[in-house]
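User: Could you walk me through two proteins back to back? I'd like the raw sequence and the structure tokens for each, with a short line separating them so I can tell where one ends and the next begins.

Assistant: Of course. Protein one, sequence then structure:
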Amino acid sequence: MDEPPHDPSETPLQRALRLKKAALEARPKGPGAGKVQRGSAAQPAGASKPWVKR
């Protein structure tokens, strides 16, 4: 990875955060990227714990 020259007063933590943000911005973004489809993930109430039924 080619890094641009950084500010000498920048702390290692600030540098890491800057690089992380740059990497996230470089990722391809599709339609609805990062969103969970709630409708397809829905379950009836209690379906995940059938032993807790009243």
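----
Protein two, same layout:
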Amino acid sequence: MVATVSCARTEDEDNWWDGSAPFKERQSIQAYQEVVETRLGEFVTELTPSSGSVSLIRNSKLYPCRDGGYELHTASIVFALPVEYSRARELAGHLFPTIGLDTITNDDHDGAFFHDKINGGDIDIMINAKGGVTISGISGCRPSRDGTDPRTTRTPPEWEASLPLYQYPSHTPTPPRTQPTPAPVMPRPGLTSSPG
């Protein structure tokens, strides 16, 4: 399961997700891509050797926010067994707080959220339904550094582009079995069908 949040909120909703800094003072969406996505790539590189396989559940994508700015949903990456959640959690705790994702919530045996209280957004790490680990992030609404639309120049990071898409198991129905046609019953040699 991957948590997602949209910038399309009503004015009555709590805006904790977007961070406490005034919008124009938040880290730009371009800086988020340069810093947080790069760090997510480091996480992938370091955890990959202890994983059965690594693949994308979802590619990254930039969205416009209703009140201005942009929100990036990072790639959602799945690490298959024998990856250990404890190793993934330890690595996340080492890499993400140093770049502002230092408010850790819902930290328990199967997941944790690394939130940036000032600029908004978070990185989520959790045990997935197959027992492996899934990680993804959402930036929260942020301004464009130069006022241009970053979607027009968005290029996914090289590490993301190099990962294969996750292959969901096929659910091809099993064809119905045909019942064998019974063989005709033949009298045994030497027996007659009429009484004697």
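The beta strands are 54-58, 61-64, 70-73, 76-79, 103-108, 111-115, 122-127, 133-138.

Let me know if you want the two compared in more detail.
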